[in-house]
Write the structure tokens for this entry.
Amino acid sequence: MPGKRVIVGMSGGVDSSVAALLLKQQGYDVSGLFMKNWEDDDTGEYCASREDLVDAVAVAEKLGIEIDVVNFSAEYKERVFGNFLRDYQAGRTPNPDVLCNAEIKFRAFLDHALGLGADWIATGHYAQVREADGLRKLLKAEDGTKDQSYFLYRLDQAQLARTLFPLGGLYKRDVREIARSAGLAVHDKKDSTGICFIGERPFREFLNRYLPDNPGDIRTPEGRLVGRHHGLMFYTIGQRQGLGIGGHREGAGDPWYVAAKDMRNNRLIAVQGHDHPALLADRLTALDLNWISGSPPHCNWVYSAKTRYRQKDAACTLVASGAERCVIEFGEPQWAVTAGQSVVLYESQVCLGGGIIESAERMRDYADAVEECPPGAVDMKDEG
């Protein structure tokens, strides 16, 4: 409803800037809010928050709207970063953007905005909200290459009822053209990457500030020693780079990939070949569920799902779902399904919700080998 007050989360990027521009053009009473959520090493080398703030203020001045700054660093550290570290320490690979959206951008920010008398908040996310039968539905964006519904699956009805996504029906190229035509200097600004609110930085060096190294063996599922790892937290399922196995005598032929983590024995399990059976999963179990409608979808229906952001939708069936746990089976084996990542369920263009992947069942012959790899397996010490 034009005329109502909306506070836009402005990051200094082109997307949130155009979101504010479009809402103002549509007649909303618009103001901006810049969120500062990281303070540990807010340096110019990796964390560009000061530059982003300058850009956000410049856009606000260009648009003739007010902009405030709020510091949610305490909430971020408690609700997002603490979980991030605990997951890595437990051998999982978390997705902080998912939790950051649910706890900071659409909870702390929303609560703050409502406290200021706003009717809605808005962001530059590429997603859409539709109301049908008294429920808000989260839909994929028109631009499939930029759709961000995967990162928003933990939102609930109360959050969606107060949220606007002005870019949901636009393509990224059009967003940049709108910004250029409006004279916004950020029209060609590079999209932000890296950890939510922390930025892109040398990952191992960053994680080492909070968690110590714990080196160990890299072995095949059969128990052969093929290398050494720096610490299980630095690796993820399906990882190819950084294993240091290439020069090993056992490393001739296909490239090596991380297939599993043996937490009990501090071992990384590696296999050769992108399509090795140990990298494939037909079925997964997910915990910490969130269904956007408030109720779980019907079991034994065919849906589609993503187990990582850039993955294509994969046909699947929800075979079981309780209050905290669900089981999903795929029509075709999925590659490198990773504990700690999110599985997000869709029905056509509608995002139904999802959960955090707890485990994945791989081809049985290799799953057994990984689980039963004994502590005293024979070393293959033919390096060099």
Observations:
- The radius of gyration is 23 Å.
- Residues 291 and 353 are 4 Å apart (CA to CA).
- Residues 5-188 form a domain with the Rossmann fold fold (CATH 3.40.50.620).
